[in-house]
Amino acid sequence: MAIQTVATSPIPGQRPGTSGLRKKVSAFQQPHYLENFVQGVFDTLGAAAGQTLVLGGDGRYHNRAAIQVILKMAAAHGFARVLLGQGGILSTPAASCVIRKHGALGGIILSASHNPGGPEGDFGIKYNGANGGPAPEALTEAIYQRTLALAEYRISDAPDIDIDSRGTRTVDAMPVEVIDPVADYAQLMEQLFDFAAIRRLFAGGFTMCFDAMHAVSGPYARAILEGMLGAPAGSVINGQPLEDFGGLHPDPNPVNAEQLIALMAAPGAPGFGAASDGDADRNMIVGRSFEVAPSDSLAVLAANAGVAPGYAGGLAGIARSMPTSRAADRVADALGIPCYETPTGWKYFGTLLDAGKATLCGEESYGTGSNHIREKDGLWAVLFWLNLLAVRGGSVRDIVSAHWQRFGRHYYSRHDYEAIDPDAARRLMQDLRIKLANLPGQNMNHYQVQSADDFEYTDPVDGSHASQQGIRIMMTDGSRIVYRLSGTGTEGATLRVYLERYEADPAQHHIPTQQALAGLIAIADSVASIAMHTGRSNPTVIT
Ligand code: VG1
Ligand code: CO
């Protein structure tokens, strides 16, 4: 067996987006495509002697083939060992946990997360550093620049290895430890939450449904919910990870998780419902005929964090992505702790978590997490809610309604226009930027514009700067419209329009969301001329 040096040339377009490099599976199947990117990562990281690399993915189509390639490249690069999830499986949060626990240099996670899978679907790859978190912008940019200068990559010609049984084997001389993908993660969850209280809840007849959508959360949910916590067998549905997610779209929102939503609205519905995405870092929380907005979920968990042993000592701060509603800010105010506002994408929370400035973080895109790892964490949020239900009693709806009663309600919705023409999308944003200076003071429907800008962020820890992170139009009553283009899609462009309106009066807390936001929705369309630019009169997805 020997290390081969293979001649290659740069492949354009390997710049990672909001969360890694995501492309159609067919793109990754092109000769040298995966190899080039991985060589770009390894070259950027430098020496690997004595270092551990963590490897795993969400089990989607092409995962197994990619893993064999990366193992051979890791061997050629001189890593001391690779920790590989059995069957090539590691959820994104579990990978983050394993990197931290075992002192790895970092990890490669194979996932296109909430994007559809299968031979016609998407594939993805991202690098996480020693803190377990997504590579910061400066590093992903360096990797990208390196991919533009490649002339060769190095790979071992060793045969494929068995990745399905646990134990240690070698690729060339490099040991590969095939580990239980669930164990380390489950142990961490047990330290954070009151498992005894949750066990008593289930023993008392409480029921739940967790929809794994045939993605990677299944084995974790079964082991922890049904195994360790005693939830009735069958509480986890669609629990077997499949390469094409069984045709489901594992992006947990009420549109895609229709089986769960129907179940939660049917007579005899379980007391609690939840779903997760392709790589198990997202969560959707559902009560009986009641969907919890992700921004509200973050605020509720922050306000009640003391119920969980892992957070009983209080929170240092909260961080949320800019488009996420400001429900969490009100909780931070009440707790007397700071609330940080970052650009979209979990990588921006890393410095705040590392510096101990934030304890809980969240995004409106069904993402919640904490300083226990450096990724958002779907099952963690589910366990947090179960811990809360076990301690407080009542229903999901009761908990959220009481929260609104105390803090007021931030009506919130996101409208996505998917697969639109990229040039039209750029023009729309360009035209909006030109309009910004003239918007303040203008009256629209019953709103008046207070200010309008393009969100910029300077990281309070390392001083790094990010510009053009979303156009914001703020109204005098605190309402807000935000526009940005997605950085995770693989087909055309996706315009996201985020709408938020605050309502203090409890008598006004139970209006259907789209109705409560109708005035803002109309303004959002007319200010940006969405219909004119995109040719669409309606969004493709509303969450
Ligand atoms: C989307 C979400 C963002 C999230 C990202 C990755 O990004 O808006 O909040 O962090 O997906 O989530 P974008 O650029 O498409 O809006 V995941 O679960 O796909 O890793
Ligand atoms: Co995800």
UniProtKB/TrEMBL annotation:
One of its GO terms (biological process) is carbohydrate metabolic process. One of its GO terms (molecular function) is phosphoglucomutase activity. Its cofactor is Mg(2+). Its EC number is 5.4.2.2. Residues 1-21 are annotated as: Disordered. It is an enzyme of class 5 (isomerase). GO terms for cellular component: cytosol. PROSITE patterns: PGM_PMM. The keyword Calcium does not apply. It catalyses: alpha-D-glucose 1-phosphate = alpha-D-glucose 6-phosphate. Residues 14-152, 184-286, 295-407 form the Alpha-D-phosphohexomutase alpha/beta/alpha domain. Keywords: Isomerase, Magnesium, Metal-binding, Phosphoprotein. Belongs to the phosphohexose mutase family. NCBIfam families: PRK07564.1-1. This is phosphoglucomutase (alpha-D-glucose-1,6-bisphosphate-dependent). It comes from Pseudoduganella guangdongensis.
